[in-house]
Amino acid sequence: MTALHFTNAILIDPEEGTETAGSLLVQDGVISALNPANVPADAQVVDCAGQCLAPGIVDLGVKIGEPGERHKESFKTAGLAAAAGGVTTVVTRADTTPAVDTPEALNFVTQRAKQVTAIRIAPMAALTKDRAGREMTEYGFLSDAGAVAFSDGDAVVRDPKIFGRAMTYAKGLGALIIAHVQDPGLSKGAAVTSGKFATLRGLPAVSLMAERMGLERDLALVEMTGARYHADQISTAQALGPLQRAKEAGLDVTAGVSIHHLTLNALDVGDYRTFFKVKPPLRDEDDRIAMVEAVASGLIDIVSSMHTPQDEESKRLPYEEAASGAVGLETLLPAALRLYHEDQLSLPQLFRAMSLNPAKRLGLPGGRLSVGAPADLVLFDPNAPFVMDRTKLQSKSKNTPFDGARMQGKTRATYVGGVQVFPARPA
Amino acid sequence: MAFRARHLLGIEHLGPDEIITLLDLAETYVTLNRQPQKHGRALEGLTQINMFFEASTRTQASFELAGKRLGADVMNMAMAASSLKKGETLIDTAMTLNAMHPDLLVVRHPHSGAVDLLAQKVNCAVLNAGDGRHEHPTQALLDALTIRRAKGRLHRLNIAICGDIAHSRVARSNILLLGKMENRVRLVGPATLMPSQVDQLGVEVYDDMRKGLDGCDVVMMLRLQKERMDGGFIPSEREYYHRYGLDAEKLSHAKPDAIVMHPGPMNRGVEIDGLLADDINRSVIQDQVEMGVAVRMAAMDLLARNLTAATTTGGVLV
């Protein structure tokens, strides 16, 4: 494998928190030097022309339609979408049909991914069988088969005794549990967050308190069992207090937020635009700002796309009946760059949340720009403007809330293990 | 003439001038409807389809009669028992109907926003006959006409809307309309039947019905939507009647000439005393039904005029 020498780049280093002009050398798929003094004579030079070079995004919580809903998204299309979006590792959800709740199902996922995409796939496995919240899955076998975390997606384990035992057992294996923190009773049937907008639109709504209740219950169980725990999506200011206290108390707890909750609010739903229906529902502007601040301070660790492909038929329904979720693999980076252009988050802060922290939390080697790390890289121009056109998305499903939005920031190239995966090169 | 809308999806999108235009036209239809010969020609040759995805007798009959009086060909489709049960989506149904070239589509649907969605997909004028808990614009307009005729004006009145606000599209449309016309609107009911942050809509909220009715010109009762309650909003019907059912004693806190309204169908002995509902000195409930036909005639007439304008000029009305 020839060496790659990225020159004339702005290096975004989330570990050091720096963005500096420099060069980077890749040998054998691994970052071998920063600003190297000696470059092998046969190294291929990639002139970055002053654009940003950052560790590729590790997107935690991506739904791929395989198995079961391949008409919505396949590993192949998800891989293309990820590459176009600068995502080098896709951490897949287990909420497929059937759920990924056996080592056999997990092997299928891994094999399928290997056959059709060059993007790294790090699969999650279900926390309970059939995601039904009753019996735990085989955490040992699943971990051996490559499961990086255990999660039932948006299904909440209602019985605290069952959830507590799952945590206790998982702790013995050092496995990470990822949970959806919306109280299921309060959330039942809700399509939007309660408030003036919900009242005007006449839509069934859920109180903000559902999130705090769900989180506080889980944190009590974490305190009881000592489990490794990650809250998939925090979206309300009221949940930040309990999260902060849990971290200060030394619990092994982290939290994430979706890019949609960082860049959109409840009013964006407008006249029942179902592409803005996500789970949990979009919140008020105050909450959005609080989430951005929590990412800046590091209280919220991880930003992800929560990529959830839905076909047109699932979305072209009355709001209450329409499916939840939005695609995000290709829009995560430009949407996140909105926060950079608004001076709310720096580039190293963004990549800390999108690349470094998820890799660290899942025990993956990527997410860094340091010597010895895999050469999973994204080269992007943070300023390039464009108008989002959903029909141009690589994803099979086109359900993005950013359709028609003016955005800034284009991926110029994506590398996985030193191999260019975007733009696609002729074989 | 100030009526710009292409569809009648909700009060939210109407301006005060449009509301007044519609009510003024409806007055002429009240007169027409009281003649022995009741035929107008405003909708002659046009096709009106009533699509009711939720069972309705009164509203559907009112729309049907309104269309027939103005000469439209009216077709009723009981969608609740129809192809949706066979798995056809709302959009497919809309596209199918659209191919039949209706001019006016009257739609009721159990989900909020469903009528908006349908309106985006068809070429004709769409009238919302009630969508979920969202809006029921012709009900608010007929209430407005009833109030204007009884009180001589439609502004600076104290109006109490009482009962199950949370599940009521009638309440939402009335709050919007009466607010746009500069009235003081009060909502009366137990907190479990109030939607969240409803106070931000420019209304006053009362838990105590006697205080809420104090000095009111209009008392508007709502049906207690029993079928929508999946448990536990109120302890019992009898406690509800005791605290929020309208009877002569509670009504005595309103102005002596206050009128009593109800969109029907009534639960006598639950939200309203039967005798009071029939008291012709106070209750305008029968007038509301009469105004309903006239308002729907006016609404379809105005939309049909805009329809012609759009076709003949080739322009697109928003």
Fold blueprint:
The complex is a heterodimer of chains A (427) and B (318).
Chain A: E1 4-13, E2 18-27, E3 30-34, E4 44-47, E5 52-55, E6 57-62, H1 75-84, E7 87-92, H2 103-116, E8 120-123, H3 139-144, E9 150-151, H4 160-173, E10 176-179, H5 184-187, E11 192-193, H6 196-201, E12 205-206, H7 209-225, E13 228-231, H8 240-248, E14 253-258, H9 259-263, H10 285-297, E15 302-304, H11 312-315, H12 332-341, H13 347-362, E16 377-387, E17 406-416, E18 419-422
Parallel strand pairs in A: 1-4, 1-5, 6-7, 7-8, 9-10, 10-13, 11-12, 13-14, 14-15
Antiparallel strand pairs in A: 1-2, 2-3, 5-16, 16-17, 17-18
Chain B: H1 16-33, E1 47-52, H2 58-69, E2 73-78, H3 90-98, E3 104-109, H4 114-119, E4 125-131, H5 137-151, E5 158-162, H6 169-180, E6 184-188, E7 204-206, H7 209-213, E8 218-221, H8 237-244, H9 248-251, E9 259-261, H10 274-278, H11 285-313
Parallel strand pairs in B: 1-2, 1-3, 3-4, 5-6, 5-8, 6-7, 8-9
How does this structure look, described?
The complex is a heterodimer of chains A (427) and B (318). Chain A is of the alpha/beta class and 427 residues long. Chain A folds into two domains: 4-52 and 376-422, Urease, subunit C, domain 1, CATH 2.30.40; 56-362, Alpha-Beta Barrel (TIM Barrel), CATH 3.20.20. In chain A, 30% of the residues lie in helices and 23% in strands. Chain A has 13 helices and 18 strands. Chain A has helices spanning 75-84, 103-116, 139-144, 160-173, 184-187, 196-201, 209-225, 240-248, 259-263, 285-297, 312-315, 332-341, 347-362, and strands at 4-13, 18-27, 30-34, 44-47, 52-55, 57-62, 87-92, 120-123, 150-151, 176-179, 192-193, 205-206, 228-231, 253-258, 302-304, 377-387, 406-416, 419-422. The longest helix of chain A is centred in the middle third of the chain and has 17 residues, at 209-225. The radius of gyration of chain A is 21 Å and the shape is globular. By secondary structure, chain B is α/β, with parallel strands linked by helices. In chain B, 39% of the residues lie in helices and 14% in strands. Chain B is built from eleven helices and nine strands. Chain B has helices at 16-33, 58-69, 90-98, 114-119, 137-151, 169-180, 209-213, 237-244, 248-251, 274-278, 285-313; strands at residues 47-52, 73-78, 104-109, 125-131, 158-162, 184-188, 204-206, 218-221, 259-261. A five-stranded parallel beta sheet of chain B has the order 7-6-5-8-9. Chain B has a four-stranded parallel beta sheet with strand order 2-1-3-4. In chain B, strand 1, helix 2 and strand 2 (73-78) form a beta-alpha-beta unit. In chain B, helix 1 (16-33) crosses helix 5, helix 2 (58-69) crosses helix 11 (285-313) and helix 5 crosses helix 11. The model of chain B is unreliable at 312-318 (pLDDT under 50).
